[in-house]
């Protein structure tokens, strides 16, 4: 039965990773060459995902169903963020463009960086799926990269013509996790 759990978990994780890869190539805008930080993030993601696939082939943890839930939530948040930003896609992480629009629909209503939330849920799912402490390296490393990328984006907004609107938006929406009050007022 563990072979079935491994296959289901690996398949669901692969769907997420493929969707994220599609996003980098087809959804996000680029204002020039791919930024170095995005190249590093992409390469590190690929290496860590390969390590996850290798590890999952050896067996999943007893919490594989929790991992499956995290992968499903990750894909749902990612799809909602794509749908909300399809008319005005954001630029790639670590791009140096000056923002000229502010997304506040869909999941952007609750979190300022729903794509990073989707990625964090995915990496948490990989950690839960594999057995042992080594599985937690990927989410820790990737979360640090996402915090750095999001902080750069926040500084870009703070130094743009959208600074006042973004300040009000920051008060309502959490960086990666929804603010409880925003969920209540909807």
UniProtKB/TrEMBL annotation:
Subcellular location: Endomembrane system
Molecular function as annotated in GO: methyltransferase activity
TM region(s), chain numbering: 6-24, 36-57, 63-84, 116-147
Gene3D superfamilies attached to this UniProt entry: 1.20.120.1630
Membrane topology: Multi-pass membrane protein
Keyword annotations of the record: Membrane, Methyltransferase, Transferase, Transmembrane, Transmembrane helix
Primary location group: membrane
Key word ATP-binding present: no
GO process terms (BP): methylation
Pfam families registered for this protein in UniProt: PEMT
Coiled coil: none
Cellular compartments per GO CC: endomembrane system
Protein name as catalogued: S-isoprenylcysteine methyltransferase
Organism expressing this protein natively: Acidocella aminolytica 101 = DSM 11237
